[in-house]
Amino acid sequence: MKKLNxxxxxxxxxxxxxxxxxxxxxxxxxEEELTLETIRKLPAMYFTNITGGEPFLREDLHEIVRxxxxxxxxxxxxxNGFFTERIIELCKEFPQLGIRISIEGLEETNNAIRGLDxxxxxxxxxxxxxxxxxxxxxxxxxxxxxxxxxxxxxxxRLSDELGMEFATASLHNSFYFVETNNIIHDxxxxxxxxxxxxxxxxxxNSPKKWFRxxxxxxxxxxxxxxxxxxxxxxxxxxxxxxxxxxxxxCNGTREKLVMGNLNSQSWDELWNSEQAECIxxxxxxxxxxxxxxxxxxxxxxKYIWIPAWWVLKxxxxxxxKPYSMEEIPAVSAHRRGLISKDAxxxxxxxxxxxxxxxNE
Length: 360
Known about the structure:
This protein is α/β, with parallel strands linked by helices. It contains 14 helices and 9 strands. Helix 3 packs parallel to helix 5, helix 7 packs antiparallel against helix 8 and helix 8 packs across helix 12. The longest helix is centred in the middle third of the chain and has 17 residues. It is globular and about 55 Å long. It starts with a strand and ends in a 13-residue tail after the last helix.
């Protein structure tokens, strides 16, 4: 059977109070969260992301990771890095683990966005400790927005100096984030900072970073409300499972879409059900144009010729000309006044200016 790409949301409890995510307002209760029995029913996966909420609030995370390594080739945990001792203890047992710590900018910016007074120091020290331990698969994750865009390049350069991975995202609205009104207000400013990052990544000697440049090019397109650059195959070869055992195509829909529940079903029964097929049809008609690494990374591998051609063009055929975000038509049209900010706002998933909504 083909291996899948899975995201396991082990808890909705969170110690952070992020400005762009209200999940902490609707936490799961420990007694209703995924059990080891349900986790054992998951399929073979080539990659598993463990996330939350804050995963390290699960006291049995060691056992969860142990079970997932029986069925997954690679595991990465997304965390705010606050619980340093728990993270270090887990990584001593599983040195092959990947750890991505969400840091939303330099110290003052990060702490304000994440609602954790000592969040930057704790996250940064956790990463440094992991590096000293010899951990290889570690890095930062940043959600780029108006409040932190000016910190984007300094944070990237810090990660580069430390020899760590650097992942980006932008604001989204969905049931998962318990948000409907996230929006970029100053698109040109945020996009300009992403444009600078794209050029730094392209100027590196790392092919991996060249493809990250393409991802960030896609983020600019997403911020301008444009059609997704790659097909979305969520629910076909990728899935999410939440703390309640519900298997979903992704975390980007307005309302939660459920393919089945693994607490009460076997994986084969759930994955091949009519309900799952119904969800796949909805995914094929989705118009939200999300651009999150969970859906984009599998698509970049599956449709590799699309990002590969973009990289070839910008890295080797541009003859030294820097990347410009104005290759995205909407960027140029907005700069020339051919499309208004209000019109771009309506292309986003923000519902502030909408009457009624659906599960796009």
